[in-house]
Amino acid sequence: MNKCSYCDSPVLLGGIRDGEKHFCSAHCEKCSPYVDFAKNIPQDLVYKSTLNIFKSPCPKCHSDKHVDVHFSYTIWSAIVVTSWRSNPYICCSACGLKYRLKGIAYSMMFGWWSLPWGILMTPVQIFKNLFDPRLFRKKSAPSRQLTQLVRIHLATKFANENIELEPLNHIEDSVSEPIDESDSYKNKTA
User: Fold this and answer.
1) DSSP H stretches of helix in 39-183
2) Which residues have a Cβ under 8 Å from the Cβ of 47 and sit 6 or more positions away?
3) Residues 6 or more apart from 16 whose CB is under 8 A from it?
4) Considering Cα of 96, then 97, then 101, then 104, what sign does the dihedral take?
5) pLDDT tens per residue across span 107-140
6) pLDDT digits (tens, 9 = 90+) for 149-178
7) 117-130 helix and 93-110 helix, angle to the nearest 10 degrees
8) Model pTM?
C-alpha cells in the first residue's frame, strides 16, 4: 500500500503521483517542497520538539494527559459528488475520541447520499473512526505521525524564514510553537 509522502497516511484509492513521491490529496502535493527540506532537519531537533509537544497540556481541554495526533474520518456526498477526508487533531486521547465520535455522526448523516462512492466509502470512514489502529498503541512515546508533523512544521518554518539548516543552535528555543493543524491532511473528492 502506498503512503502519502507528506502526511504519511495510507493512500487507498488513486492519489497524486509526482515522480517518486505519492500524495493523498492536492493539499499534500502543494506542501511537497517541504518534504525534501524536512529530510535535512537534524533528528535531535525534531525529537526535542516532538517530545516538547507530546508532554505539553492538551491544547483543546488543557488536561495533563499526553498529546499526540488523533484523526477523525468524515465523508459527505450529494448525488454525484463525494468528499472524504482525514482530519488530524493534536490533542489528548479523550479529545481525540470526541472528534472520532463527531466524525461518525457527521458521516452517518451526510455520507450516504451519492452513488457509488457515498454508499461504499461511508462504512469505511465509520469503521476507521471505530477501529483506528493508532488507538491501541503505547502512549509512552510520541507517534510517528506526530514526529512527521513536527518535522514538516519545522521545515515549513525554516524554509519560509530562509534559515540555513547547517547551524541550527540558535533556533532550538523557538521550536515549541504550536502546530497549526487546521488544514486537513486528506481531502479526496470523487
Assistant:
1) 43-54, 93-110, 117-130, 144-160
2) 147
3) 22, 23, 24, 25, 26, 28, 29
4) positive
5) 999 999 998 999 999 999 999 999 877 676 767 8
6) 899 889 888 887 776 554 444 444 444 444
7) 160
8) 0.73
